[in-house]
Design a protein that fits this description.
The chain is mainly α. The chain contains 5 helices and no strands. α2 crosses α3 and α3 packs across α4.
């Protein structure tokens, strides 16, 4: 050996990067929501979104999904079924206070066509 000492570094565990979903403790993908919000659009509103907008939106979507699936599970249990079917989800959506959230109030306005009323 040439008399030089080699410096030994203490092994520090590497910090793994954490996704925004993990940091926000969400199951819904925050990065995908962010990407879909920021897709190139005509109106360019996406330039004014804050960093917390996709986190909040993913949290709201996860909350609504969890509530709908919970109620659909109870509906399936009431019908003595082990699996949630689309009919159970539809029953929950039609007969619950959630129906006013998802009703389609906006209809596209086409030139020369009167707005469609239900």
């Amino acid at each position: 050996m040439s008399g030089k000492r080699r410096r030994q570094r203490a092994h520090r565990p590497k910090k793994h990067s954490l996704s925004r979903s993990i940091r926000a403790e969400l199951l819904f993908p925050v990065s995908r929501v962010d990407r879909l919000l920021r897709e190139d659009r005509k109106d360019r509103y996406f330039q004014r979104l804050s960093w917390s907008t996709p986190v909040f939106l993913a949290g709201v979507m996860e909350y609504l999904t969890a509530n709908i699936l919970d109620l659909a599970g109870k509906e399936a249990y009431n019908h003595r079924k082990m699996l949630i079917t689309p009919e159970h989800v539809q029953t929950v959506m039609d007969s619950n206070h959630l129906s006013h959230i998802f009703e389609d109030d906006t209809t596209p306005q086409v030139d020369g066509m009167p707005p469609f009323r239900k």
